[in-house]
Amino acid sequence: MCGIFGIISSAPVDKKELQVLVNHSQQRGMDSSGLIFTDGSDYIVKRADYAISKLLKEVKLKSSSMVMGHSRLITNGLSDNQPVVRDGVAVIHNGIVVNHESIWSKINKERKLQIDTEVIAAIAAECVENGDTLESIPEKILDLCEGIVACALVLPKLGKLCLFSNNGSLYLGQNEGRQIFASESYPLVQMGCKDIKKIKTGVFIDIAVSDKAMDVSDKAGRKTNLIADLPLLSSEEKLLEYPKPNLKRCTKCILPETMPYIRFDDKGVCNYCNNYKLRNVPRPKEELFKLVEPYRRKEGNDCIVPFSGGRDSCFGLHLIVKELKMKPITYTYDWGMVTDLGRRNISRMCAEMGVENIIVADDITKKRKYIEMNLKAWLKSPHLGMISILTAGDKHFFRHVETIKQQTGIGLNLWGVNPLEVTHFKSGFLGVPPDFEEERVYSHGAMKQLRYQFLRMKAMMKSPGYFNRSLWDTLSGEYYRSFTEKSDYYHIFDFFRWDETEIDETLATYDWELAPDTTTTWRIGDGTAAFYNYIYYVVAGFTEHDTFRSNQIREGQMTREKALELVEDENQPRYQNIRWYLDAVGIDFKEAITVVNKIPKLYTL
Q: Rounded to the nearest 10 degrees, how much is the dihedral formed by the CA atoms of 173, 175, 180, 181?
């Protein structure tokens, strides 16, 4: 997924206008980039595995009257970068074609690259070769392709640029005769464009006619690929342990004796059960309809949906579109731990419902380096209460909601947070007792946060490696999550009952993709969960699956017997996901797992 943009003019492109587009496109990712521009009748393509702002400085545009480009999230290798060029067609594409592998058998073209975008160029080239009408080209592409397709299709032999999308993540504006497009409307507004329109059906713009082959060149600047090769080795997988400790568990839920601050009464029922207050008791839906009514717009989008691509945010989006009849923009924060599976599900859901997706991508290289530094510090002095520092980098999710509100002018944000995801043990292992009065998954109590930070600082003192350049990123992210006031902010599951069976059945109708290494549908698009749950299980004999299933028991959604059966499977080590995570942050698999396996257990076998 990336940000795409372009300027088509009768005069040389204004570099200041171009810089506005370049700067904004980097919000969606800066790990690779590409430009396509004209020099007379010649079409020149420049691609690089670094930021578009750097690439632009290296390119001599001279008197180019057409410049288009993209700034992209993670890619693996230069040959799979955009613009994709083949058979006289060039494509820049925002989105993911989730069924690209199956399309090749339906067209008379051979696959040459791994990137999904290639199939779009191949379909277009076949249409041109067959003499199909211009209007039929985007129609055929959208008919064959599943997932988000927001494209700029360059057809030099026909002298045409085709812009189209299936989810509205493409805008076209006019500025004194120049036609300017971008993945979002915000930069077009900044540039003073008029008549800004969201593009869905094909729009055709005249460009220079040329029969010459495009001049394509690639530049490398990154020392290592952000997506490394992932050879799965049986010898490594055997290192993963799955002990079966004989733990005393609550007679009502399934929490074990190793749960922090747990106590059992004379009937064997734990204090978490005895103090539990039902969470999954939604208020009348009519209240939500009244709350959102002032935000509805006759034209344009009317709400923002923070969107991870996970199970609950996907079902929340379904409810918002199908039940509330709102017109949302989804917002995704990518900090380097969103897996390809998560991105594909984002693409599926947004394409199917015709919903725009705005991505705010952090500096992936920097964020993963922060995780590496903190994980190395943790491995030197393992502490269950410090595991949460490995996921601290994602808390800027909350900060950028405000960014998107400002850029879109939309105030209302609707969250699809699972009300049963309360764990307690993550801070409990640090020394924070459970607050049974907590009403939300994310607590905003200032004193609770200060106590938490004090205890964490004490634990950090045992491994000085924690005091690295990631510290400000960690603290500022947690500040935005816990201390800043949230406005126009509602939880969809405060008004709709959370039901796992209904959710899974609904998502199946969207061909929502499951993970190959687990049967659960929870957290499968999260690159971090498999690793930290492995640590919790090996050391304490349980994971967040145990706390989640226990909450379902208390809500009357599941029997204790069924919960025990499910966690038996869900707590098994997920080798593929763990290996991906450790490779992504540059930590040796054997080294990390050996340290985890040697940590003293909180139980006896």
A: -20
Spatial distance between the Cα atoms of 413 and 401, rounded to a whole number of angstroms: 8
Q: Reply yes or no on whether the pLDDT at 480 is more than 80.
A: no
Using DSSP's 3-state secondary structure scheme, residue 296 falls into: coil
pLDDT of residue 442: 45
Let me know: does 355 contact 322? Beta carbons within 8 Å.
no
**Bridge pairing between strands 328-334 and 194-198:** unpaired
Long-range contacts of 311-314 (CB under 8 A, 24+ apart): 311/503, 311/504, 311/507, 311/521, 311/522, 311/524, 312/416, 312/417, 312/418, 312/493, 312/498, 312/503, 313/415, 313/416, 314/345, 314/349, 314/416, 314/507, 314/510, 314/512
Task: Identify whether the C-beta of residue 325 lies closer than 8 Å to the C-beta of residue 487.
Answer: no
Q: Are 243 and 538 in contact (CB under 8 A)?
A: yes
Tokens 């998502």 belong to 507
Say if 2-212 and 234-491+498-598 have the same CATH topology. no
> At residue 363, what is the residue type?
D
Alpha carbon distance 179, 205 (integer Å)? 9
CATH assignment, 234-491+498-598: 3.40.50.620
Summarised one tens digit per residue, pLDDT across range 177-195 is 899 999 999 999 999 999 9
Instruction: Give residue 436's pLDDT band: very low, low, confident or very high (50, 70, 90).
Output: confident
In words, the CATH class of domain 2-212 is: alpha beta
Residue 461 CA from chain centroid, whole number: 33
CA distance 152 to 34: 13
Residue pair 352/344 in contact (Cβ under 8 Å)? The answer is: no
Tokens 């040697």 correspond to: 598
b/e code 486-519 from CB counts within 10 Å (16+ = b): eebebbbbbbbebebeebeebbeebebbebeebe
Residue in the structure block whose two tokens are 């980039």: 33
Give CA 492 to chain center in angstroms: 20
Helix (H) or strand (E) holding 182: strand 178-182
**Residues 170, 118: contact at Cβ < 8 Å?**
no
Amino acid making up residue 333: Y
Task: Tell me the pLDDT band of 231, cut-offs 50, 70 and 90.
Answer: low
The partner residues of 6 in beta bridges, in order of sequence, read 68, 181
Distance of CA 494 to the CA centre of its chain: 24
| Cβ atoms of residues 77 and 68 within 8 Å | no
Q: Domains of the chain: which residue ranges? A: 2-212, 234-491+498-598
Terminal alpha carbon distance of the chain: 47
What is the rounded CA–CA span in Å between residue 553 and residue 269?
13
The two structure tokens encoding residue 397: 């999710």
H or E segment and range at residue 57? helix 52-58
Burial 195-230 (b: 16+ CB within 10 A, else e): ebeebbebbbbebeebeeebeeeebeeeeeebbeee
Strand partners, 2: 72
117-154: pLDDT as tens digits? 999 999 999 999 999 999 999 999 999 999 999 999 99
Rounded (5°) CA angle 353-347-409:
65
Return mean pLDDT, the chain: 91
Q: CB–CB of 347/98 below 8 Å?
A: yes
Task: Output the furthest CA–CA distance in the chain (Å, rounded).
Answer: 86
The residue whose two tokens read 């005769």 is 177
Quick: pLDDT tens for 8-20: 998 888 888 999 9
Q: How confident is the model at residue 441 (pLDDT cuts 50, 70, 90)?
A: very low
